[in-house]
């Protein structure tokens, strides 16, 4: 039996699911896109190829290997995009939650049955149907669970809004001993620079007390300021709109000291090194075209 354990975003990683780009299918039709950045690349004829994305994910797998992390991969489903494992499930403490994800992506979950079979079935939880939730919006941070959400009455119009207010209530009920803190995110179906698809597209903690953050991703200014106050201004790396679009906030922590990042994120990678982090740089710019990056491609199972 596998003992799940996740309390935060950065403690030393022992086991993780890493998605796969194998057999991710043909270039989607514009009407099949479920995020504006993919749509942009479908229309421009620059949608990433499977071969390029497989190479990028192999580089990620190699970094895990180097750091002694056990990596599970999903079964390959024919013509199914399984790159972003983050969203299909998430672990908090010793429980795995089966996300009620965008219906277009539901098939992705069945492919991790090999991992699910190692987990005590009592520790696998499916929220009720009205709870819409994706792992990209859920960040356990010690006493807190930080959650990206969208609660506008036009929620159903946004294919980019994935976590609703029922999800926030659900997490509060599941974890009465934690503080569940929701953040209202800016959504756009058509403009990727004005869209925080998930919380991890505009914010992520690194190390023990630092964070990467983009103000415009947040709809409510006080909620953005809460994060600035919580981490402290001097511990925040504020990114620009263009950097959010490049997915700067979607790096991935293997430990409080080691961060995996994209090789072209020069400004961020320099800051990280200056703060004392070891930065493992890999190429991930093709996958970035689908509005997801390194955190999105992983689903941590065990951290110290
Ligand atoms: N955790 C994340 N930010 N995941 C990104 C998922 C991207 C994917 N194109 C989608 O729209 O679902």
TrEMBL record:
Gene3D superfamilies, per the entry: L-arginine/glycine Amidinotransferase, Chain A
Annotated metabolic or biological route of this protein: Amino-acid degradation; L-arginine degradation via ADI pathway; carbamoyl phosphate from L-arginine: step 1/2
Catalytic reaction equation(s): L-arginine + H2O = L-citrulline + NH4(+)
Enzyme Commission number, as recorded: 3.5.3.6
TM region positions: none
Protein name, as recorded: arginine deiminase
Source species: Flagellimonas algicola
């Amino acid at each position: 039996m596998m003992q799940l354990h996740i309390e935060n975003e950065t403690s030393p990683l022992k086991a993780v699911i890493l998605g796969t780009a194998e057999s991710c299918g043909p270039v989607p039709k514009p009407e099949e896109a479920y995020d504006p950045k993919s749509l942009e690349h479908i229309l421009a004829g620059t949608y990433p190829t499977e071969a390029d994305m497989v190479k990028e994910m192999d580089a990620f797998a190699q970094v895990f290997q180097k750091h002694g992390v056990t990596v599970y991969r999903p079964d390959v489903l024919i013509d199914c995009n399984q790159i972003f494992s983050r969203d299909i499930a998430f672990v908090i403490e010793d429980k795995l939650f089966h996300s009620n994800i965008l219906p277009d992506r539901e098939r992705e979950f069945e492919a991790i049955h090999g991992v699910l079979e190692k987990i005590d079935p009592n520790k696998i939880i499916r929220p009720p149907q009205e709870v819409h939730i994706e792992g990209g919006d859920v960040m356990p941070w010690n006493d807190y669970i930080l959650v990206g959400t969208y609660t506008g009455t036009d929620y159903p119009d946004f294919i980019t809004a994935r976590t609703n207010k029922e999800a926030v209530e659900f997490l509060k009920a599941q974890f009465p001993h934690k503080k569940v803190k929701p953040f209202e995110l800016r959504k756009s179906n058509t403009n990727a620079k004005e869209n925080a698809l998930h919380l991890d597209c505009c914010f992520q903690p690194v190390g023990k007390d630092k964070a990467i953050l983009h103000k415009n991703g947040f709809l409510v200014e006080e909620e953005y300021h809460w994060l600035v106050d919580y981490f402290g201004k001097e511990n925040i790396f504020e990114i620009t709109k263009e950097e959010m679009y490049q997915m700067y906030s979607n790096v991935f922590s293997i430990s409080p000291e080691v961060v995996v990042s994209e090789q072209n994120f020069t400004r961020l990678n320099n800051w990280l090194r200056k703060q004392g982090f070891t930065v493992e740089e890999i190429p991930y710019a093709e996958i970035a075209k689908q509005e997801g990056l390194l955190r999105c491609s992983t689903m941590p199972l065990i951290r110290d």
